[in-house]
Amino acid sequence: MDILEIKEKHQLSREGAAAYLRKLADSLARHNEVEFTRHGKILRVDVADQVELEIELELESEESKLEVEISW
Q1: CB-based contacts of 45, cutoff 8 Å, min separation 6
Q2: 47: helix, strand or coil
């Protein structure tokens, strides 16, 4: 059973998406946590020292997709 699930979808430029991923990566590397803001409240989630990284690439004629999943 999920304690909490947050799903977000944003339209960004490629550069904006890269900046978002950099911010997330910096947070993981420096603070050992990720941060989400929802309804004006900040939620910080600690991330374990060892994680599993899964990368999936889907190439289709209409749409391509790159999924990055980190679990611990």
Answers
A1: 33, 34, 35, 36
A2: coil
57 located within any domain: yes
Q: Is residue 60 part of a domain?
A: yes
For 18-67, how does the pLDDT look when each residue is reduced to its tens digit (9 = 90+)? 999 999 999 999 989 998 888 889 999 999 999 999 999 999 999 999 99
pTM: predicted TM-score of the whole model, two decimal places: 0.79
Neighbours of 70 (CB within 10 A): 14
DSSP string, 9-44: -----HHHHHHHHHHHHHHHHHHSEEEEEETTEEEE
